[in-house]
Amino acid sequence: MALYSEKVMDHFRNPRNVGVLEDANAIGEVGNAKCGDIMKMYLKIEDDVVQDVKFETFGCGSAIASSSMATELIKGKPLEEVKKLTNQAVTEALDGLPAHKLHCSVLAEEAIQKALEDYYSRQA
Ligand code: FES
After folding, report:
1. Nearest-angstrom CA–CA distance, 58 and 6
2. CATH architecture of residue range(s) 6-119
3. Can you say whether the dihedral through the CA atoms of 96, 6, 72, 63 is positive or negative?
4. For residue 104, how far is its CA from the centre of ligand 1 (angstroms)?
5. Residues with CB under 6 A from ligand 1
6. 3-class SS at 112?
7. What are phi and psi of 3, to 5 degrees?
8. Predicted confidence (pLDDT) per residue in 1-55, tens digit
9. How far are the Cα atoms of 12, 53, 91, 96, 112 from residue 88, in angstroms, in the given order?
10. Among protein residues, the one whose CA lies closest to atom 1 of ligand 1
C-alpha cells in the first residue's frame, strides 16, 4: 500500500483555498515546535456561518493536505459544526495519514479552533 492516499496526494498537489483572506474576521495561527511547521487559517464568518476560508501553511505535505481538506470541511458550515471539527475527521476525509503524520492534521484542528477563539474575542 502506498504511504499516502490518493486524496492526500491530490490535496498536496492541488491545495484548495490557499492564500490570505483580506476581509477575514477570524485568524488562527499555530505551529508545531518539533517539526517547526506553521499553519495559519483565515475565516470570514457571517451569521454564524463560515462564508469563506483560506490558509497559508509553511510545512510538510501532510500539513498542506490537512489544511486544504479542513478548509473544504468547514466552508459554508455553521459555527456549531465547525467547533466540533477534529483532526480525526480531517484524517478520515483524507482516507488516512501515516501514524507519524497524524500531528500534521492536529495543526489543522488547532488552527481552526484558534481562529474561532479570535472571532469570539473580537465579538466581546
Ligand atoms: Fe510537522 Fe507535518 S511534519 S506538520
Report:
1. 22
2. Alpha-Beta Complex (3.90)
3. positive
4. 5
5. 32, 35, 37, 59-60, 62-63, 101, 103-104, 107
6. helix
7. -65, -40
8. 589 999 999 999 999 999 999 999 999 999 999 999 999 999 999 999 999 999 9
9. 18, 20, 5, 9, 14
10. 35
Best substitution site from 62, 91, 94, 105 to test ligand 1's pocket, by max atoms within 8 Å of Cβ? 62
What is the per-residue pLDDT across 79-124, written as a single tens digit (0 to 9) for each?
A: 999 999 999 999 999 999 999 999 999 999 999 999 999 999 999 8
Give, as one character, the DSSP assignment of residue 85. Answer: -
Single-letter residue type at 81: E
Distance between Cα 82 and ligand 1 center (Å): 22
Ligand 1 atom, smallest distance to 61 CA: 2
| Ligand 1 binding pocket mutation candidate from 60, 94, 100, 105 (most atoms within 8 A of CB) | 60
Per-residue HEC secondary structure of 27-80 comes to EEEEECCCCCCEEEEEEEEECCEEEEEEEEEECCHHHHHHHHHHHHHHCCCEHH
Threshold 0.90, pTM exceeds: yes
